[in-house]
Amino acid sequence: MPEAWWKERVFYQIYPRSFQDSNGDGIGDLRGIISRLDYLKSLDVGAVWLCPVYDSPNADMGYDIRDYEKIMAEFGTMEDFDELLREMHSRDIKLVMDLVVNHSSDEHRWFVESRSSRENPYRDYYIWRDGKDGREPNNWASFFTPSAWSYDEGTGQWYLHLFSEKQPDLNWENPSVREEVYSMINRWFDRGVDGFRMDVITVIAKAPGLPDGKGAPGAGGYVFSPEHFAFQPKLHEYLREMRRRCFDGRDCMCVGETSFVNTENANSLVGDGRELDLLFQFDLMDMDGEGSKWNAIPLDVPKLKRIVAAWQGAIDWNTLFLGNHDQPRVVSRFGDTSSEELWKRSAKCLATLMYLQRGTPFIYQGEELGMTNAPFETREQLRDVEELNLLALCSSEAELEWAWRGIKAKGRDNARTPMQWSAGENADFTTGEPWIMLNPNYTDINAEAEEGDPDSVLNYYRALIALRNSTPALLRGDWRELLPESGQVVAYTRGLDGEEYAVLCNLSRESAPLPCRLGDFGEPVLSNMPADPAAETLRPYEAQVLKKG
Fold first, then answer.
1. Torsion angle of alpha carbons 416, 417, 420, 421, nearest 10°?
2. CB 3.0-4.6 Å disulfide test: which of 7, 11, 94, 98 passes with 52?
3. Are the beta carbons of 154 and 115 closer than 8 angstroms?
């Protein structure tokens, strides 16, 4: 029986606003994506995850949806979308849309109706409550603001928003809400899309009665309370219903952004007959922050190894990623940008480590070029609501210094600077003024320059993807950890039907000892440095893929 298509293909995530502008307004768009599809095909990309292109006021860069079945004017028209879909399918590239249904925009017609009066039929589409003692209904903090509640003067009640106040949470308890969502999903399927990535899907169900959180209070005395909104009992009921009503019987896929998932509960979501095909776990994304996302700490290789091994053992098929639109640039975060040589070598090393594991690779745009964090210096250069809210909460110079260190290291805008296509004007992203600053290093790091360099990060990605896609053991083989005792080297084997490969990656600035000669692991088939079979060390950020004889 053939494998599901989403296991066999490499995914490429596109952040439309920053990928390619076609009309000179400084904002990427659908026709810009169409113009770059041959570039994706040259990478042997088999599927695209497209961040939201729906109509939105952009309070959270498209994750606040005003109309689920209309294209944002900045991005184009529905006719442009249909052409994009046709052109992708003609190149055998699948299209996966972003599905944002924990919340809508406060400008969505449902919410406009909902807040018009307590008697409106749409009132129960959202979560409205009376206050307590002149304050919010409970003490919950949101992801973006101190309080998860906003007061509506017109109707005298509070509404829940786990994210921005312009992103009111939908009430999944209401069957009418679920019917609206399922009908919308099915209309997109009927249009020809191949699947959905489900944004923050594990928080759609809330605890009955919305009780106060019991944790340590943060800003304003509010408590971040995932125990009351993540993985609640009705979550599985809703996801099973969605699966049955929308996904079953279609040749499609769904991958969930599963906040607060762990190795113990993951199998309740994925696997044969379960609600999701794939999930994005956060253990790797959270491993370099202590107490706060903004407290960036150096990479802890033994910790990374424990996380990788735990997830490879916990579920049968993983998502393989180190970056996305919500994370800083991979090579700046986990690699070494102190010199051109180490930048290039560490970018290749990280790709080797991640994308040859058992699972489906998800490459974020620009990662294949080794794009880095941008040198943001002023509030005016920032666009991300999360970063701006963080600065707004600072009440001292010391807090501002701490916040800026965090933004420069971990801020989401780092991943949202325009794609670096060439050293030409505005990196050939736009003929106008880019909506967000270009990284000044685009004159050196860009697709055109790397295209002609056989040693480039881009061409290494091509070789890596080609090796994975053409090698059954690297596609479908089992995964086993190698060198678990090493504090510098992440190593594993992939094996199938007697064929076995060893993957060795030194994630440090220092040479790493090996327990034997490199040649004892096998013959090199891919490396970011010339292999020395007699060597008993791996050089800084050296990556080797070896086939056992």
1. 70
2. 98
3. yes
Q: 173 catalytic, yes or no?
A: no
Residue of 214, 190, 70, 82 whose CA lies nearest to 139: 214
Asked about 257 being catalytic, the answer comes back as: yes
Q: Which of 74, 80, 136, 199 is catalytic?
A: 199
The length of the chain is 549
**Other beta carbons less than 10 A from residue 534's beta carbon:** 8
Token match 């034997």: residue?
516
Alpha helix positions (H), 417-492: 447-451, 457-470, 472-476
Number of Cβ within 10 Å of residue 399's Cβ equals 13
Active-site annotation holder among 257, 288, 368, 542: 257
Q: Could you say which DSSP state residue 4 is in?
A: P
Q: What domains are there in the chain, each with its CATH number?
A: 7-99+252-464 (3.20.20.80), 476-547 (2.60.40.1180)
Give residues with Cβ within 8 angstroms of 188, minimum separation 6: 69, 97, 196
How far apart are alpha carbons 172 and 65 in whole angstroms? Answer: 17
pLDDT tens digits along 150-196: 999 999 999 999 999 999 999 999 999 999 999 999 999 999 999 99
